[in-house]
Amino acid sequence: MAETLVLGTKSFCLLINNVETNLEYAALSNASYNGLNRNSFSANKLETEMLRLGEFNSRSCDGVSRRAFVQAGATLPLTAMLSGEQIAQAATQARAKTVVFVWLWGAPSHLDTFDPKPDAPLNYRGPFSTIPTTLPGVRFTELVPKLAARTDKFALVRSNITHDGGHPGAGTFGYTGHREGRGITIQPSWGSIVSRHHGAGEGLPPYVMLSRGIPRDVVKTIDGYGGGDWGKAYDPFLIQCDELGTINIPALKLVDGVTPDRIAHRRNLQGQLDKIRRNVTADTFDAWDSKSKQAFTLLTNKQALESLDLTKESTELRENYGQSSFGQSLLLARRLVEAEVPFVNVSWSEFVEAFSPNTDFGWDTHVKNFDLLPNRHCPVLDTAFSAFLDDMYDRGLMDSTLVVCMGEFGRTPRINNRAARDHWQHNYFSIWAGAGVKPGQVIGASDGKGERPVTRGIEPTGVGVTMLDCMGIDSIARAELNVLPDGEFIHELF
């Protein structure tokens, strides 16, 4: 059943996909890699302060208010079909306080990781052996043994699809549910929608991106990472984290010649922050952009500042996550979950390219796919994401946290003439955990060569709808914000 509601001169499309099913949802139950020395996590390095400060360089939605929208809708026949109890039930179906969106920028190969095809021809299956998982009959490649041993902690989707074979377009679609260049507006990302819905609080911003930079390829920054036409106020708050866990906040504009190096050490931090506070006048503060103001406000909030201090974690735990920017970022993400940040995006890399100027080794493995995956990418992913899942479960955080891990598309099942794999939008994987997701299952399946799903394809719109619904941003809230009017909830997960 689908109905379109038109309110006065302002039109909103509210797609109600099977009211009975929506109500049913509401009732559902709830290593280090080559070239790095593990021992380099020395005591003297851990004494170094993990905070550095640097430089960073809305339009309001004018729709009717949520109250007015609901009041108007209450007079329509659709609402009359539901009891007051059913309406209340549907409105309180939120399962998650936080979403951790792990973005494997550059697109990992599904055949070489979580959807191997050992019976396919050699020019498809690749050189890696397969290993059993904890699920009968389900096998991964030998490159992800730790995750293979933890399939009881997550659900795997093997039937993701998208509709753009280029990184910027697929990245925009993967972050927003809208194709690049369609219409005259740039749609907000999942995190921006969550940020606007929750509103700004004290201390930590509602949408934090942990990355070395805003996701881009060499050519351009993707359109869909931030607030789009809502404005920069809804862009993510960028925090950079290196392989030692050193934190950099680009948005803060330093005053009076204070440099990052001068405040890098723990014993100098408080004094330098006090100096910043003394020298920031009302006029100075008003001249800053919104992200700089956020940064300054964060640094004056002791609890928020402590959430960013990885030195409070044991050396053993930090080593468990791995000495990589991705691993330490995931550890920081766990601390942000504890601080109740609503949306945390951990981006594997700033750049998609494995080899390019200013590279930080994304997953775009047109060349050296079969060198990078066993020697760097998969050990880093396997170590860090396994440690993250263990840590989150051990601390009892998964009941209220939804974890989603994916890239923008997959890679060609047929190996190219450079002995690697190219872009493939027709089939890829995603990993889901927490917030009522039923672990220990594989959803969907691809054909014998890993080329296309033989079951229902899961599109980015479905990913977005599922994440937002789990956060309590239902179809009514999305209609109010004029975002994501369609998309199929991934009910198989729950």
Q: Helical region count?
A: 18
Strand content: 5-15%
* Mean pLDDT over all positions: 80
Q: The CATH topology, please?
A: Alkaline Phosphatase, subunit A
CATH architecture: 3-Layer(aba) Sandwich
What does this entry look like structurally?
With 494 residues, this protein is an alpha/beta fold. The protein has one domain (31-60, 94-473): 3-Layer(aba) Sandwich (Alkaline Phosphatase, subunit A). The protein is 33% helix and 12% strand. The protein has helices spanning 19-27, 43-46, 66-73, 77-80, 84-91, 122-125, 145-148, 167-176, 190-198, 266-279, 282-287, 290-299, 302-307, 315-321, 325-338, 369-394, 460-470, 475-481, and strands at residues 6-7, 10-11, 51-53, 98-103, 130-132, 139-141, 155-160, 207-210, 237-241, 247-249, 343-347, 401-406, 410-411, 423-424, 428-433, 441-443. The strands form four sheets. A ten-stranded mixed sheet has the order 3-10-9-8-11-4-12-15-7-16, with helices on both faces. It has a two-stranded antiparallel sheet with strand order 1-2. Strands 5-6 form a two-stranded antiparallel ribbon. A hairpin with a 2-residue loop joins strand 1 (6-7) and strand 2 (10-11). The protein is globular. The relative contact order is 0.21. The model is unreliable at 1-50, 52-92 and 255-267 (pLDDT under 50).
Briefly characterize the structure.
Helices cover 33% and strands 12% of the residues. With 494 residues, it is α/β, with parallel strands linked by helices.
